[in-house]
Amino acid sequence: MDLSSPIICLLLHSLVFVSLFYCNNSLETRNPLVNQTFQSEDELLKLKETIAIRLKKLNKPAVKTIQSPDGDIIDCVLTHQQPAFDHPLLKGQKPMDPPEMPKGNNRINNFSESIQLWSLSGESCPNGTIPIRRITEQDLLRANSDSRFGKKLPVGSNDRQYALQFVEDGEFYGAQATMNVWNPQGESKSVFSLAQMWVHPNFYGDRRTRFFIYWTADAYQHGCYNLKCPGFVQTNKAIALGAAISPVSTYNGNQFEISLFVWKDVKTGNWWLRYGDKDLGYWPSSLFTNLKNAAARVHWGGEIFNEQYEQASSTQMGSGHFPEEGYKKASYFNHIYVIDSKRVWVQPPKLKNYADSPNCYNVKGGVDSSWGTYFYYGGPGKNKNCP
Ligand SMILES: *[C@@H]1O[C@H](CO)[C@@H](O)[C@H](O)[C@H]1NC(C)=O
Ligand SMILES: *[C@@H]1O[C@H](CO)[C@@H](O)[C@H](O)[C@H]1NC(C)=O
Ligand SMILES: *[C@@H]1O[C@H](CO)[C@@H](O)[C@H](O)[C@H]1NC(C)=O
């Protein structure tokens, strides 16, 4: 099972990722419990008990519960009871109001925005609450070890491939881009184990496109997805992190886009995240001393995880088509901006391309009057030039 995601990544001393997450698990109906080898019934019972305790701690009490058509359960949790406020430094606090984002070249796309499945029917969380995707027993079992749940594999392993653009050696106080949303197809696997599930943190167990955030304060040693550990304070009641996104773009058909912004509020030092015109929340500077600085480097692009170390993966990145195919066929980022040291949005100077294996996944950029700074990225993975 492989995984593909477009990312916007700000490299401080720490990392903040904002990603759309596409995953593939051909064995989604399999109950991981059934084929696990346990020493004894006792061991299984003990594991289930541990998981029940962990779930109780992870899932906060809901004032309303919404059943999403994709099977997810969305809990509307009082804003001051969200996981971030479990942190000793934030205990007793309430979420801040969103500050005003620096004005400038930032522009919201005029496509209809992709939305989340759980709210399609018109269901919503009440004022004073935020939607949190409920973590299930299955999620924890898939994550193998519950103590590692929500954390990501260290970088630097050769099972990842990137096709991206980046700027480095700068002083950046924000980054934004608009991207079209796809649901790439992944490789099927006949072998499945919980340990491999951990190597590829596919804790959702399906192949929908999801919106998630990930951060780490120490270069991937410890980090978290979404609200799974204290670190991100969500302020928005319309978007559930980790929930599925719909609709997605189709080849030669309608293109669906989202715009993402990550930027620093200089007054508080908090880094805020915006999705379209919605402020989602922030990483508090009191928890991340490194976030007090500017970002030195920003990445935009695609990433895939491949569990076959020896040969190319047939997991698609983005639409699964190469940049040369262009609009409606390849995936793209456009309206790429950074906030510079003068605290204004500018098109990034000296954008560089990076692709691990251009014959498998590539990137190709440009600048024009309607899209500003943009690039196409992605590819099919395994093909005759990428054996
Ligand atoms: C266990 O896995 C094997 C293949 O490894 C499969 O044929 C069998 O159906 C599985 N058993 C259950 C109960 O899922
Ligand atoms: C976006 O808006 C501009 C100006 O109104 C228009 O020319 C363009 O066709 C629109 N693009 C899309 C994809 O709707
Ligand atoms: C919820 O908040 C919005 C925005 O502040 C307000 O317009 C709306 O009336 C509130 N709804 C309820 C039920 O209080």
From TrEMBL:
Residues 154-387 form the Neprosin PEP catalytic domain. Residues 1-26 form the signal peptide. The keyword Signal applies. Keywords: Signal. It holds the Pfam family Neprosin. The keyword Signal applies. This is Neprosin PEP catalytic domain-containing protein. It comes from Pisum sativum.
